[in-house]
Amino acid sequence: MLVVKKFGGTSVANKERIYNVANRCIEEYKAGNDVVVVLSAMGKYTDELIDMAKDINDHPPKREMDMLFTIGEQMSVALMSMAMNKLGVPSVSLNAFQVAMHTTSVYGNARIKRIDSERIRNELEQRKIVIVTGFQGVNKYDDYTTLGRGGSDTTAVALAAALHADKCEIYTDVDGVYTADPRVVPTARKLKVITYDEMLELATLGAGVLHNRSVELAKKYNVQLVVRSSLNTHEGTIIKEDTKMEKMLVSGVAADPDAARVAVIGLKDEPGVAFKLFNALAKKNINVDMILQSVGRHGTKDISFTCSDEDADLAKDVIEELMEFESIDVDKKVAKVSIVGAGMQSNAGVAAKMFEALFDENINIRMISTSEIRVTVLINEKNTERAVNAIHDKFDLGEDR
Amino acid sequence: MLVVKKFGGTSVANKERIYNVANRCIEEYKAGNDVVVVLSAMGKYTDELIDMAKDINDHPPKREMDMLFTIGEQMSVALMSMAMNKLGVPSVSLNAFQVAMHTTSVYGNARIKRIDSERIRNELEQRKIVIVTGFQGVNKYDDYTTLGRGGSDTTAVALAAALHADKCEIYTDVDGVYTADPRVVPTARKLKVITYDEMLELATLGAGVLHNRSVELAKKYNVQLVVRSSLNTHEGTIIKEDTKMEKMLVSGVAADPDAARVAVIGLKDEPGVAFKLFNALAKKNINVDMILQSVGRHGTKDISFTCSDEDADLAKDVIEELMEFESIDVDKKVAKVSIVGAGMQSNAGVAAKMFEALFDENINIRMISTSEIRVTVLINEKNTERAVNAIHDKFDLGEDR
Is this complex scored with an ipTM above 0.95? Predict the structure, then answer.
C-alpha cells in the first residue's frame, strides 16, 4: 500500500514533535507500506520569514517572497530526514525542484499543473521514506512558486493523485470532521465517513479542517482522504465518493462568525444593476457569498449580500462610488449557520426542520441560501452557539448511527 | 563590463549591511556594467543550522545536511533582491538549481564541474542584477551539494570564468593583501598587485584572505581577482598572472601559529617506512605540511613533520599503533613563518637573508622547507611576532615601491 501523509506546521514545531511524526511514519513503513510525507514549515516560521522580508521591503516582490518562503519547508524536510536517520530508517528529503512539482506561473497563489513522479518512485523502490516540501512548486520560468492558503494539503493530495496512492492522510490537531464544532456543541460527534461534496460545503462554511482546494482536487482524482489527529491514533474521518455510502440526511452543522451583511436599499430597477455591482466588487477581490434580491418600494429594488467582516467597509465604499440608491447598511454582527448533508437532495422538509429548530429558540433568520446539499441561514452573531446546538439536537446528530 | 562581486556572511549580517551591499552593486550597475552578485549565508546563520541539525541528530547524513545548509544562502539572495527592488533597481535571485551549478557528487565537499550560464545571461540582458547563492551546487542525482570551506569564493570565481567576466571582486573585512599581518607588523603595506602563485602560497600559509581553491580556479581560467573591503571604497589588491608584472623579490611575510611538530626518532631504516607512516595519516585525514627525514643513530632514521595543533595527538596515536621506533615527541608550541615572492626563483640569497634576520633576533630555526617562490621556517611560537617584524624590516617590505 502507498500512503501519503501530510503534517502541518504545529506537528513539526520542535524536536519532540518532529520525532513524533518520524515515529508515526516509520510505523507505517515497518508495516510494509510505501510512505510519502508532506510537511509544512515549522510552527510560525513562515510568519517569521514574512517579518524578515517586511523589515527589508514593505512591499517585497512576490517572486522573491516565494523564493524566501520555500526555505521554511526545506528546513522541515531536511530535519525530518535527519530524525528518521537517527531512528535507523532510510529516507530522503525532496524540494519542488527535485520532485518535480510543476505549477502555473502566479507567485504566491500558483496551482499545480503536473508532477514528475519518477524521482519519488525510484526512492520508494529503494525502500526509502520520501519527505516532500509542501506548499511549493516550480513554474515554467524555473522559479519557485507557492500555492497559497491550504497549500500543503493541496501538495499532499496532488502527490497522492500522481502516485495513485491508496490513501492520503491529513494530520491535524483535531480527531476528524465533527457533526458540529465540539467546543460549541458538547454532544458533537466525529463522523466516520463524509462525501467530498459535504466536506466542500463544510470547508467553505468555516469548519476549518481542510482547505477547499485540496478537497476539490481529491474529488477530481478520486483520492481517498483521511483527516486525523497527529496527537493520537484515533481513526479519523474518511472523505470519499458517496457511491456505496448510506446517505445521511444531515452530516453536520457549521457556523462562520466572520460574516457581514451589506444591504443596498432602493436601487434603480433596471437591467444590469446586479452585474455592475458584483462585477465592481469582484475587481476589488471581494468574495461575495449569499446574495438576495428583492423588490423595493416605488419601483426600486433592494440587494443584500454577505462577505467577510474584513471586506464589508471596502464593499460599501465601492458601491457608494459606483451607483445611486436610497441607503446602504453594513451589519458585521451576523453569523452564517449551515447544515450539510448529501441525503438532503432527496429529502423534503430538511430546511423546514432547521427553521423549526431556530424558531423554537426564538432566533430570527435574516437571510436564507441553499444548495443541493446545504442550507445556510444568516442570524445575529450572539445567537450562534444556541442556534448550532438547537439544530444539532433537532437532527439528533449526537447519536451514534 | 561584466563584474562578479562576492560578499561574505558578515557583509550581509543585518538590514543595514544588506542595504550597504545593495548600494555598492547598484553603483556598479548604474555605471553601465553587468553585475552578478554572489552571497554567503547571513552572519553566523550556517552555524545556527548546524546547531539545529545536531539537536535532531548528532551525526546527520551529509546529504540532508547540505539540503539544510543551502537555505542559508537562499535567504540572503532573496532578501538582497528585495532590498534592490526597494531601491528601484531590477534584480533576480537564483539558487543552484536555477543557475544551474553542476558539481561532483560528494556532499559537504563538492567541486564545481559545469555551469549553465544561459539563465544568468538572459537575466543580464534584461538589465537585471543577478544575485546567486554561493557555496551550493547540484549533483548528478539532482541533490543539493555544498562546496566546503571557501565555497562562496569558489562559486564567484567559477561564475566569473563561465561568464568570461572582466573581473571578480571578493569583498572582505580587510582592505586587501598585505606584506604582513598589519596587527602584527605596524609597517605592513597593502600590495597593489600579486600573482596567483604568490597568493596561493600566502593562502596556504594562513594569510586567510582568500581560500586556495578559489585562487587555483582563478589561475586555471585566468580570472582577474580583486580582494577589497566591503566597508570602504579603497582599491584593494589585484591578483593576476605575472607576465607583465615586475617581479618583486619578496611580496610578503605570513605566520601560522596553528602548527605542531611531530618528531619520530629511531625508525627502522628500511624501504616503505615513510610511505606507511604518511599513508596511515592520510587515511585519518590528517594534513601534513613540512616533512624532514634525517639519518638517526645505529642505522635508524628520524622523521619529523608538521600538522595542525588539532591533529597532532591523533597523529601520535596513529603512529604508535602502526610501527616501531625509539621515541616520539609532539611540540605544539611552534609556528610557521614564511616569505613569499615570485621574484625569489631567480634570486639567490633570499633564504639566507631571511635566516640572517632571525639570527639577528637570536631566534632558533627548528625546521626549514622551501618551494620555488616560498621559504618557510618553523620556530618557537612565542617568537612569532618578533620574527615576522624582523623579516619584514630586513626585506624593506614597508617601503612603497
Answer: no
